[in-house]
Design brief:
By secondary structure, the chain is an alpha+beta fold. The protein has 15 helices and 16 strands.
């Protein structure tokens, strides 16, 4: 993918690109700290890189951050001849093992429930297949709803994506964001906050008996459309979703009831989030479970809404776009869990952004590998592929008399052969003398 030529205009391009490659590949194989990565490279692969050089390489990565983003965007767009119909947008948080704020690391709402640690906000745009297109790192106290405008501008100005249809979750559902995208000539489908709509619309949604039956990805949904400020509001009801909503509420209420003493709940026993508080009546000194709030919430079981400015698509097509949003959530899981993007142990803005860029390169490689395999009907998870490739090994034998070295390749499994074939790679299984 050309990632081995990302660092340019230095006297040691080859050296820094080589160190970057080793850093990225180690991140994929063994996602650990930079210090631990160096030990693994030396112990398992015979590659020696001083820690100081690893950090200096990260400074070069920071200097080329925009080049890296653009390179990945062009590679992703190149898979689709430069045209992508739908893009997914989402935001997450990355925390530090740190309690000290600076210009980038801030305290904010943590999606990892790490409210005592500082964090940064990461915004990501992918294709419908989960292939990364671009990203941006924001300070940890940045409201996620305010990141969308910047990302749309990046698509237009930096990556020359002209036809934009962005799909996003309800955090992006605010008038400023929708107006901005309309002004930019962009199409959008975002989740609507049904319970915050006008009383008139909410009354219509709850009392309407004329819902139409449709299939969305082989699931039965009952839908109804409304006009909302010259936009389409598509409300759907799904029985399975209704069961889940009821089950989630029951579990939350039961948890609250265990905290009731003398008909009241101790404020100190509550987890400070909206999910806990929405069924409570909170006064200055007392907290009680509000049965009316529970019954009102139950009316919305199974209902979900999306709002869009697309006029020429059927409602079920729009819902299908939104249903695909799990792809970007899966991409975040790869970034956070498989690549261990967080917690972060770097403290300067340069190193933080370089760390994210290295993880982003690794993510692009992983997603490209999965996409290429799937195109050839090879259905393996990232964990399977990583495990298989880590076990493509060879033994090195030293002849004590002649001082010659010989490479004896280990036997390859069928899955390993399939992966190699998918990328047009050949590996000799015959012992040979080492150069």
């Amino acid at each position: 993918m050309g990632f081995d030529r990302l660092i340019k205009n230095t006297n040691k391009d080859d050296e820094w690109n080589s160190i970057l490659k080793q850093s990225v590949m180690t991140r994929i194989a063994y996602p650990v700290s930079k210090r631990r990565s160096i030990k693994i490279l030396e112990e398992d692969f015979g590659i020696q890189i001083p820690l100081e050089k690893m950090y200096r390489m990260m400074n070069h990565v920071f200097d080329h951050e925009d080049d890296i983003k653009n390179h990945i965007a062009q590679k992703t767009l190149g898979l689709f001849q430069g045209q992508v119909d739908v893009l997914f947008f989402d935001v997450t948080t990355l925390y530090f093992e740190s309690f000290k704020e600076d210009e980038l690391r801030k305290f904010g709402f943590s999606k990892d429930c790490k409210f005592k640690e500082t964090q940064v906000v990461l915004a990501l745009i992918t294709t419908t297949k989960g292939l990364p297109l671009t990203y941006e790192v924001f300070s940890g106290n940045k409201y996620e709803g305010h990141t969308l405008e910047i990302m749309v501008d990046a698509l237009r100005q930096k990556h020359q994506v002209r036809e934009i249809h962005l799909v996003a979750d309800r955090a992006m559902f605010n008038e400023d964001n929708l107006t901005k995208m309309e002004t930019e000539g962009a199409s959008y489908t975002v989740a609507a906050k049904l319970k915050t709509l006008s009383k008139k619309i909410k009354k219509e949604i709850l009392e309407n008996a004329c819902y139409k039956k449709v299939l969305v990805e082989n699931e039965t949904h009952w839908i109804m459309e409304y006009e909302l400020n010259n936009r389409r509001l598509i409300v759907s009801y799904n029985a399975d979703r209704a069961k889940k909503d009821a089950s989630d509420r029951k579990r939350l209420v039961e948890r609250l009831q265990k905290k009731v003493k003398d008909h009241e709940v101790n404020i100190k026993d509550l987890i400070p989030n909206y999910g806990t508080k929405k069924y409570l009546s909170i006064n200055k000194t007392t907290v009680t479970i509000n049965q009316d709030k529970i019954e009102q919430d139950a009316q919305w079981d199974g209902l979900h809404g999306v709002i869009t400015n697309i006029k020429n698509k059927k409602a079920e097509e729009i819902l299908q776009y939104y249903r695909g949003l799990w792809q970007i959530e899966a991409t975040f899981r790869v970034s956070k869990n498989d690549l261990k993007m967080r917690p972060m142990y770097h403290w300067t803005m340069k190193r933080i952004k370089a760390h994210v860029a290295i993880c982003f390169i690794a993510l692009a490689l992983i997603k490209y590998t999965l996409y290429k395999n799937l195109k050839q009907q090879i259905n393996m998870s990232f964990e399977q592929i990583r495990s298989e490739l880590l076990h493509v090994q060879s033994s090195i034998v030293n002849d004590v008399e002649t001082k010659n070295k010989y490479i004896i390749p280990a036997f390859m499994t069928e899955n390993q052969k399939i992966i190699y074939k998918a990328f047009g790679l050949k590996r000799s299984e015959v012992p040979r003398r080492s150069n």
